[in-house]
TrEMBL record:
PANTHER family per the UniProt record, alphabetical: GLYCYL-RADICAL ENZYME ACTIVATING ENZYME YJJW-RELATED, PYRUVATE FORMATE-LYASE-ACTIVATING ENZYME
Cofactor: [4Fe-4S] cluster
Keywords: 4Fe-4S, Iron, Iron-sulfur, Metal-binding, S-adenosyl-L-methionine
An example Gene Ontology molecular-function term: metal ion binding
The protein's name: Anaerobic ribonucleoside-triphosphate reductase activating protein
Limits of the Radical SAM core domain: 26-154
Gene3D superfamilies linked: Aldolase class I
Keyword S-adenosyl-L-methionine: yes
Length: 232
């Protein structure tokens, strides 16, 4: 018998994690990267403290058929669990759409999952040359960008996201991403300034306020390259 999905957290109702849909979020336990701005550090370990079983989640979903539109698998990094695909298939069988939040840590795993997805929020970590220092893992840049290319080629409905802190990605490097993204057909990029409430390395990242003037300047620059910035 294959192992059950390891669930580290659960949100029964959300309107923001799958655009224009009522959804619940299943937070999958475990992540191989150690991004300094991670705001779910309790989900990094392979085994977590939370006692939420997958059968309990399924029981909840059976009671929400016709009330919820979708189930979003988040993390941690959900794609690292072999049990994710069977879980997605069970969710589909109940009539829900399937969403996923992923950074594409393992491109081969993401490739297997893409045919089952209705929507994907993809976490692009930054310019290739800056990603390994952000994640703390050598080779993560290649994996992240390879998965990014897989997402674009798949035609699955998606949102490209970038978590931004000027200490990790200088503004000049952020601007430098506009043309490469436009060339790959990206028309929408969601920029998420680092949240400091509960980050993995909060003490090493200064609190930075992104001013409205700075946002507008970036909006104008990216728009000139054909990419619209959305701030979250």
């Amino acid at each position: 018998m294959s192992a059950a999905l390891r669930v580290g957290g659960f949100v029964p109702l959300t309107t923001i994690d799958y655009p224009d849909h009522l959804a619940c979020v299943v937070f999958c336990q475990g992540c191989a990267w150690r991004c300094g701005y991670c705001h779910n550090p309790e989900l990094l370990a392979v085994q977590g403290a939370a006692q939420i079983t997958w059968p309990k989640v399924l029981s909840f979903l059976q009671q929400r058929q016709g009330l919820l539109d979708a189930v979003v698998f988040s993390g941690g990094e959900a794609t690292l669990q072999n049990a994710l695909l069977p879980a997605m298939q069970q969710v589909k069988a109940l009539g829900f759409k399937v969403g996923l939040h992923s950074a594409g840590i393992k491109p081969s795993a993401l490739a297997r999952l893409l045919p089952w997805l209705d929507w994907l929020g993809f976490d692009l970590k930054g310019p290739r040359e800056l990603i390994d220092p952000i994640t703390g893992v050598r080779g993560s840049a290649e994996a992240n960008w390879q998965s990014f290319e897989l997402v674009l080629a798949s035609k699955v409905a998606h949102e490209i996201r970038l978590t931004w802190h000027p200490q990790l990605i200088p503004e000049s490097a952020l601007r430098g991403m506009a043309q490469p993204l436009a060339e790959r057909g990206v028309q929408r990029l969601v920029v998420q300034p680092v949240q400091h409430q509960q980050t993995l390395l909060d003490s090493r990242l200064q609190r930075v306020l992104i001013s409205e003037v700075q946002r507008e300047a970036l909006n104008e620059y990216f728009a000139g390259q054909g990419v619209v910035l959305y701030w979250r």
